[in-house]
Amino acid sequence: MQLDALNEFAFEDSDHQPRVYGHDGAVVIELHGEIDLLAYQQMAPLLDPITGGTATTVVIDLTRTTFFDCSGVTLLVRAHRRTTARGARLSVVCTHHLTLRVLRLTGLTPVLSPVPSLEEALERAPEKD
CA-CA distance, 111 to 40, in Å (whole number)? Predict the structure, then answer.
């Protein structure tokens, strides 16, 4: 799916609308605001074409999130399964201590390996051809 085609996904609160862009061969998805059940319902249709697409690296950037519950965990697990099922890599950028705690308590820290910056997530990306 082309990044331009993602404009069809509208969010009522533009301050919390995800930002999707290409960077160094990866697709970066910046999530903003609260990641709860409502956000999950809005974001899953946005993430599915990206995580099931052709990008070899997908980065989900959580540095601008203010709340993260089990719906956010479900969103990340779904994205991880979809990217790894097609041989791609998912990286998660996160610095918020409560979100990191949720990932640690759910046992997802070793699976998702969150990093503190986009640069570090891109360094872990597979080599580009």
Answer: 20
Total residues belonging to the chain? 129
pTM over 0.90: no
Tokens 């993602």 sit at which residue? 6
Q: Among 120, 92, 119, which residue's Cα sits nearest to residue 106?
A: 92
pLDDT digits (tens, 9 = 90+) for 70-123: 999 999 999 999 999 999 999 999 999 999 999 999 999 999 999 999 999 998
DSSP the chain: --GGGGGG---S-GGG--EEEEETTEEEEEEEEEESHHHHHHHHHHHHHHHTSS-SEEEEEEEEEEEE-HHHHHHHHHHHHHHHHTT-EEEEE---HHHHHHHHHTT-HHHH--BS-HHHHHHTSPPP-
